Amino acid sequence: MESLNSRQIEICEQMDLPTNIDELTSAQKKSLIRIEELLQYLDQKYNTTFHYVGYYEKSTLECEKLEAYSDELNEYHYTTMTVENDGSYNDNYKDVFGGCILEIEAADFLNSNTDSEFKVFALECRYDGETIPETINDFSNVTSLTINIIVKGKDKENKLHSYAEKIIEWYKSNNIYGYVNFIMVSDDYFDSVTDFNISSVKIDDNTDISLSCDISIDGQTRIY
Prior knowledge:
The protein is an alpha+beta fold and 224 residues long. Helices cover 32% and strands 27% of the residues. The protein is built from five helices and nine strands, in the order H-H-E-E-E-E-H-E-E-H-E-H-E-E. Strands 5-6-7-8-9 form a five-stranded mixed β-sheet. It has a four-stranded antiparallel β-sheet with strand order 1-2-3-4. Helix 3 packs across helix 4. The longest helix has 21 residues, at 26-46. The protein starts with 5 loop residues before the first helix and ends with a strand.
């Protein structure tokens, strides 16, 4: 490697490494070359540009892994790519992309069919389709979805059950299954909840975890 490309320079800046190739160690150069190989594989496979989030070399317990996000999404919605022991590559880009579509669709459905405001965050999506989903119509009962739903206003306890019934209706109408957790928050706190801090949302004066529901693959449901 005689010089760094723009993506490698960005990676060096993220990792607080020198951006002058002559100042990098042999091990650092080796890692940058390997990361670029894996990123180029994802670029070509999905016809977009991926950006580095994290890289983990193979160990006695773990496979080699790359975390990266595409131009189509953002850093929160990153893809994990694994290099298996036989040298093959596996990634979950379809799952991540599918989760983004479904969280938008679920939020639009709730905001259009109830009298409250909602934000939806996909925690996990497992999509078994052959190609990357493009619309809600691409999903089926082989898709599972786990979501957190943020509800604006803590005075709506008596309406949560009806909201749960609505989201169950949405799951069933789209032939998907999974787990839903409703979290009520104060009006001021609602605006501050984003992709990047949803994992830190906890029970406090502004927040109350209120209700959950399961939608099983056979259509059985449970609200609790």
